[in-house]
Amino acid sequence: MANDFFTGNKEFFPGIGKIKYEGPQSDNPLAFKFYDSNKMIGGKSMRDHLRFAIAYWHSFCGDGADPFGGTTHFYPWNKAADPMEAAKDKLDAAFEFFTKIDASYWCFHDKDIAPEGGSLADFEKNVQTITALAKERQNATGMKLLWGTANLFSHERYMNGAFTNPNFEVVTYAAAQVKAAIDATVELGGDGYVFWGGREGYMSLLNTNMKREKDHLARALEMARDYGRKAGFKGQYMIEPKPMEPTKHQYDFDTETVVSFIKNNGFEDDFRVNIENNHATLAGHTFWHDLQVAVDAGLLGSIDANQGDYQNGWDTDQFPTNVFEATRAMMVVLDNGGLGKGGLNFDAKRRRNSTDAEDLFIAHIGGMDTFALGLEAAYKVKNESSIPTMLRDRYSSFDTGAGADFEAGKFSLEDLQKAAFNTAEPETLSGKQELYENIVNSMIYGK
Ligand code: XLS
Ligand code: NI
Ligand code: NI
Q1: What pTM did the predictor assign?
Q2: CA–CA distance, 116 with 372 (Å, rounded to integer)
Q3: Which neighbouring-strand residues pair with 273?
Q4: Which tens digits make up the pLDDT trace of 195-206?
Q5: Burial letters for 124-135: b for 16+ Cβ neighbours within 10 Å, e otherwise?
Q6: Diameter of the chain by CA atoms?
Q7: Which residues carry a binding-site annotation for Mg(2+)?
Q8: Domain ranges of the chain
C-alpha cells in the first residue's frame, strides 16, 4: 500500500500534506469528497477497483506551453543546472506527489524520467540510473508501476515516424529505445508496457507506402513482444488508439482498428488495448463505445482517464469531471469483471493558466472523486437498477425456440423466409432510450 509518506531530501510541495477523505460535506479543496480508498464496493475496495495511476509526463514535465506561448508552469525540480540532478529532483517530487495524493500506481515514458544526453548510449545509461533510483523509491513507498513506454515522437528524428519511418536507420533507433524502456519496465515490475503510435501514421498518402509502413509496425511489435518475454516481462503489452494528432491519419485509429490489428497479427495472447477517453471522442465514438469494443473482444487492457472539450476538435487531455461519462465507463469496466492488470491513468494536464502548485493536487482530487462517484453509480446500475433485466429482456426472443436455433446457426436463409411467412407483422417495440438514461441518472443522484 502506498500509504507511507515518502520523504526525499527536499520537500517540493511544502504546506500540502497527505490528501484525506473528508466526505461530501467538506469544503476543503485539498480533500477527497467521494474517493474513500478503503470503502468496499461489492467486496472490493475503491482503491482496488480504480487502480489510479499518475502520468509522469503531464504532471512533472508538462510546462503549460501551447502553440501561442511558452512555459507557464515553472517547477522547482527543474532548477538544477546538471540535467541528471534535475531528473533526480523530479523523481523525488514525483514520489512525494504520488504518496501525498495517495495513488498506488504511476506511468512514464523513458524521456520523462531521464535526459537524452548526447547520444543514444548516454540516454540508455541515464534511463538505467534513474530506473535504479525509482526502484528504491518504489520499495520505500509501496508505489507500483502501471506501465512504462518509450517516447518515439518528440525527437526530430521521428518526424516521419518511428517504426513506420521510411528510413530504416530511424527504425533501429526506435527499437533501441523500446528495448531500454522494456528493460526499465521489467526492472520496476510494471504491470504493462504501452505502445502509443506517436507519429506512426501519415500526413500525405502521396509520399507514403501505407502497406509497407503498417507491416514494419507489426514486425517491430512482434520483436518487442519476444524480447520482453525473454527479458522476464510478465505484464500486458498494450496499444493505445488515437485517430489523429500528431499525424493527419494515425494507423492505430480507434479501438476497433487496434483489435483487428492485434487479431490479424496473432497478438491476442500478449497485446491488449489502452483506451483514452479523449482519443475515443476524437475518433467520433463515445468513451464507453471504445471500452465496450475492447471488452467484447476480450482485449481491454487499461484506461487513460481524461476528458476532451465538447467544442474543440483536438486532444485537450483535461482532468475528468463528468460523472455521467465516468459512470458509463465504469459500467463497462464492471461488465469486464474489473480492470485486471490495468488501471485508471490520469493522462491529463492542468490548464495552462492553472499555475499554483496546489492545482496539481486539486486536478487529481477532482479526477479521483469523479471516478469514485462513477464506480458507485455503475455498481448500483448493475446491481440495483432494472437496466440489466431490461437489456436482457430486449433480446429474449433469441433465448428459446427458433431465435435460439438461429443464434446456434441451425437455419438457412430459406428457413428464415419460411418463418417470416408464418409470422404476423412484428410488433414495433420501444427502445426506451430515455428511460435507460433516466435510470442511470437516478443511480448517480441517489434514489
Ligand atoms: C498522447 C498519448 C500519450 C500516451 C503515452 O496523446 O495519450 O500520452 O498515453 O505515450
Ligand atoms: Ni494516453
Ligand atoms: Ni490524449
Answers
A1: 0.96
A2: 38
A3: 239, 300
A4: 999 999 999 999
A5: bebbeebbeebe
A6: 83
A7: 240, 276, 279, 304, 315, 317, 347
A8: 20-384, 388-445
